[in-house]
Amino acid sequence: MDEAEPSVPVNRYEASDAWLAVDRYFTSTLVGEDSALVVARDSGVETTMPNAEVAANQGAFLELLAQIAGARRVLEFGTLAGYSTIWLARAVGEQGQVVTLELEPHNAAVAEANFHAAGVSHRIETIVGPATESAERLIHDGAEPFDFVFIDADKPNNPTYLAAALKLTRSGAVIVIDNVVRNGAVADAASADPRVQGVRAVAEEIAAHPDLDGTALQTVGEKGWDGVIIARRR
């Protein structure tokens, strides 16, 4: 007997039909997802974390946030197939730059092909290797400050990524951290999941930092029940 297919795609949480319908409505009405973005999103299945890319309306949200912030330099922790990277590269404009950090060479190769297809490869620098080490090299080399940081990599390292982001940004910079609700698990202080503890630790560090203002938003949709932290440097 054939095994039944899982009801929830890997790397996503359960989503109700109503949530999916609302996402489809707003995406079709408001989001300009062209063929290059569709190809990049679909190519996520070729990476080490299929279905982990942001949803289309979330990609558009990142683009708007970067534009509102006036960002010309963006740092991204976690590339995968480069779907969110393309949104951010379009946000910074022709003279802007996105530096994206990816652990896996295979994922970086998938992303690079997508960047070329989208016509934004000249705005993107992909650095392959552990993000903590890549970020430290940027700090050591005196990289020009970034205006916007998107943290969407391994969650236990969220506090480390935040610390690096603070060394690589200046006043007014915006920092967005993805996947912080985790199907509600973030509310469990006793959770044994290191991803949950990574989110809780970074939230507490943002709350305690004298130069950061932040909040969090829960989201529901095709990615299930999750959310983002958004912080701004004073």
TrEMBL record:
A GO molecular-function annotation: S-adenosylmethionine-dependent methyltransferase activity
Gene3D superfamilies recorded: Vaccinia Virus protein VP39
One Pfam family recorded for the sequence: Methyltransf_3
Keywords: Methyltransferase, S-adenosyl-L-methionine, Transferase
Coiled-coil zones: none
InterPro entries: Cation-dep_OMT, SAM-dependent_MTases_sf, SAM_O-MeTrfase
Claim: Transferase is one of the keywords in the record: yes
Name assigned to this protein: O-methyltransferase
Signal peptide interval: none
An annotated GO BP: methylation
Keyword set includes DNA damage: no
CDD domains: AdoMet_MTases
